Amino acid sequence: MSDAILMASGADDIDFMIHGLFSYELFGHKVWITTTHVCVLIVMLVLIGFAFVINRKMKHATDVPDTLQNIAELIVEKLDGMVENVMGENSRKFKNYISTIFLFILFSNISGLFGLRPPTADYGTTLAMALITFTMITFCKFKYQKVKGVLQGLCDPWPFWAPINIIGDLAVPVSLSLRLFANVLSGTVIMALIYGLLAKIAIAWPAALHVYFDLFSGAIQTYVFCMLTMTYVNQAMDTE
């Protein structure tokens, strides 16, 4: 199983494909557990473990914070500041959601540094997050703009423009998911090709590429996904 999950364990078994690890029967259908499921589980366990440790730590917070408390406060402060700068007075309602998807996407993107196949290199992962965001955007539209406001928005600037506006709305989850998926997958493919084709000379120097594809590009794509999410939600809550 470890050989299928790890990306960089040797030239002979390096690839960028999703592999089925084992299957089981569910209501007469065969369901596969893939490398993506396992990597998502690993990322979730890391985040849950980190949250549990920080929660216990903050219950005994001191006036003079130690290293762990400083890290926790810095993360919360930066994420809250990012959401407040973009969403303004609406930020209070969405801080938890934006912070959660930010950490999940970021940890997923940088998991390649530890030999895992990034879960965000699977379109099933990015599409699921985009659909959740799209559902939230649609809910906010009907909650704050009401049905009348939504219909007016679809018919803006002219009623015959409605089909194009509908296509534009439906394109939101597609663009959100494809942008993140394509950027992460491209880095995954390039690194897999390097380790597969240049295995004999892939010593030390691929680390610089990991810094770019996993850290720099991964952080940028995380920020872009969250920024677009906040922008779309703000637009959905705009009643003017």
TrEMBL record:
<feature type="transmembrane region" description="Helical">
    <location>
        <begin position="31"/>
        <end position="54"/>
    </location>
</feature>
<feature type="transmembrane region" description="Helical">
    <location>
        <begin position="180"/>
        <end position="205"/>
    </location>
</feature>
<dbReference type="InterPro" id="IPR000568">
    <property type="entry name" value="ATP_synth_F0_asu"/>
</dbReference>
<comment type="similarity">
    <text>Belongs to the ATPase A chain family.</text>
</comment>
<keyword id="KW-0472">Membrane</keyword>
<dbReference type="InterPro" id="IPR045082">
    <property type="entry name" value="ATP_syn_F0_a_bact/chloroplast"/>
</dbReference>
<protein>
    <recommendedName>
        <fullName>ATP synthase subunit a</fullName>
    </recommendedName>
</protein>
<dbReference type="InterPro" id="IPR035908">
    <property type="entry name" value="F0_ATP_A_sf"/>
</dbReference>
<comment type="function">
    <text>Key component of the proton channel; it plays a direct role in the translocation of protons across the membrane.</text>
</comment>
<feature type="transmembrane region" description="Helical">
    <location>
        <begin position="123"/>
        <end position="142"/>
    </location>
</feature>
<dbReference type="Pfam" id="PF00119">
    <property type="entry name" value="ATP-synt_A"/>
</dbReference>
<keyword id="KW-0375">Hydrogen ion transport</keyword>
<keyword id="KW-0812">Transmembrane</keyword>
<dbReference type="InterPro" id="IPR023011">
    <property type="entry name" value="ATP_synth_F0_asu_AS"/>
</dbReference>
<keyword id="KW-0138">CF(0)</keyword>
<keyword id="KW-1133">Transmembrane helix</keyword>
<keyword id="KW-0066">ATP synthesis</keyword>
<keyword id="KW-0813">Transport</keyword>
<keyword id="KW-1003">Cell membrane</keyword>
<feature type="transmembrane region" description="Helical">
    <location>
        <begin position="97"/>
        <end position="117"/>
    </location>
</feature>
<keyword id="KW-0406">Ion transport</keyword>
<feature type="transmembrane region" description="Helical">
    <location>
        <begin position="211"/>
        <end position="233"/>
    </location>
</feature>
